[in-house]
Amino acid sequence: MIIFLRIILFVVGSVLLANGGYLLALKKIHLGIILPFLIGLIFIVLSIAWQPIQNYLKTHPTAKKLWNLAWCGFIVWALTLAGFFWKISQNLKHTPNPQDYKAIIVLGSGTVNGQPTPILASRLDTAAQLAKQYPQAKLVLTGGMDFNEHESEAEVMANYLQKTYQLNKANFILESKSTSTALNLKNSAPLMQQQHIIKQDTIAIVTSDFHTLRAQAIAKKQNFSDVTMVSAPTPKLTRYNAWVREYFAFISGKVLQEY
């Protein structure tokens, strides 16, 4: 039984370590990548050093209690994470119904070297198709200046849409100050109002499939009353890392009363 457990720890740890190490090498650094990487490293160390650790615990009762407590805490956390993953999996697909949208809001997700990240590019690709279906709708691009960047995320998004899809920049509304989903929506409202678009108008919000649950709750809290969520697919390579990151963002949003 112990041998089987150690094999499981080593295999799971190796997968997590390889996945996290590869993404870190691509300079993708966030909690959803770092945490699985560290868990993988710990699992491998435990699988290799299991017996010496057990010998030590036999002679140190306090350490044994902490060991058991740590495992209990990890199991509870893993169960809540699995429950959250299930909730996201039930909420992935949001497709727009034909409506007279006044605005299409695209929520930011980071830039690197003046280019959208793969997750943000997926949101923009989805938004571009929607914008072509509803050319009368204003396209609201949201996001401030990322670390070590020279353009705001909104500007990078506008450049991408112009270059890739030849969309008319005159139809864009750039919200270039925000640093979170809540601020994306809050700061967009007065800019839209300048274009005679209010929160009660029919509005589409484009974001990643895993992010729609929290984004919709935030929009509701901010009194956007006629919102359609539109899902952009998440690249498979980073899908579950993004879900882990969203797990903590979801908790943080609740604590900060964003929804």
Please tell me the overall pLDDT. Answer: 92
The order of strands across the largest sheet is: 5-4-1-6-7
* Largest β sheet strand count, sense and barrel closure: 5 strands, parallel
User: How many β strands by DSSP?
Assistant: 7
Percent of sequence in beta strands: 5-15%
Low-pLDDT windows of residues: none
Write down the overall geometry. Answer: elongated
The separation of the N and C termini measures 45 Å
Give a short summary of the structure.
The protein has nine helices and seven strands. It has 259 residues and is of the alpha/beta class.
Could you characterize the architecture of this molecule?
The protein has 259 residues and is an alpha/beta fold. It has nine helices and seven strands; from the N terminus they run ααααβββαβαβαβαβα. It has helices at 2-25, 31-48, 50-58, 61-89, 118-133, 153-165, 181-193, 212-221, 239-255, and strands at residues 103-106, 111-112, 115-116, 138-142, 172-175, 203-208, 227-232. Strand 6 (203-208), helix 8 and strand 7 (227-232) form a beta-alpha-beta unit. The model has no long low-confidence stretch (mean pLDDT 92).
Helices and strands, with pairings:
Layout: H1 2-25, H2 31-48, H3 50-58, H4 61-89, E1 103-106, E2 111-112, E3 115-116, H5 118-133, E4 138-142, H6 153-165, E5 172-175, H7 181-193, E6 203-208, H8 212-221, E7 227-232, H9 239-255
Parallel strand pairs: 1-4, 1-6, 4-5, 6-7
Antiparallel strand pairs: 2-3
Helix pairs in contact: 1-2, 2-9, 5-6
